[in-house]
Amino acid sequence: MASELFAICFNATRPSGLARFWSGVLGWEQVDGPDGDIAILPPGPTGFRIRFRPGREPKTAQNRAHFDLTSTSPEDQRQTVARVLELGGTHIDVGQLPEEGHVVLADPDGNEFCVIEAGNEFLAHTGVIGALACDGTQEVGYFWSRALRWPLVWDQDQETAIQSPDGGTKITWGGPPVAPKAGTNRLYFELALPAGTDRDAEAGRLVSLGATLTGEGEGGMVLMLDPDGNEFSVQRPPRRG
């Protein structure tokens, strides 16, 4: 069995504050785990959690990945933006055009995200986090489709997208040009091994698909890079809740 996407992790300067922000924006429950681990949990049994880990490396460039939040109506979009601003987020300019319907914002740690206008058919029926939109190559989209065994739901003009067979948030890659990587990514994937899966065998499978093994972290976690050089980790089956 393939590893599952267990969490999207943020390297955060203030993990507890960033967790409160995103819990308030999304309406997800916040849980505090051992050793200062902080996460917010999706409301249903499917999907991924969002974890907030201490990170001291300063933000020097636009992130390679950001959330696209969905809206059910123009009023819902306005309410989401107002809630973001009330919780400490800000408007930012990343070169968006005035006629574009989405709103570009940053969380209190400077991480970019968008609130997409209502009626976006590509994000229909995905949930509040419609997509994790990534700067990446077609090759890395193919890699993650095979790594997670999620089907491709878009593959055109070197742009790719995948989605769990259970539905939910899509993960997209915009194709070239891909901006050079600036330091360690602030957002990264955390995979979890299904029960009974051999860790070394799964790491070997990911390497055969194009990943690079970089070392071992706490608790026997395997540290790796995908074909675009993005960090991710593979850990033993974690406790849910």
Automatic annotation (TrEMBL):
UniProt cross-references to InterPro entries, sorted A to Z: Glyas_Bleomycin-R_OHBP_Dase, Glyoxalase_6, VOC_core
Name this protein carries in UniProt: VOC family protein
Pfam families: Glyoxalase_6
Superkingdom of source: Bacteria
All residue ranges annotated as the VOC domain in the record: 4-118
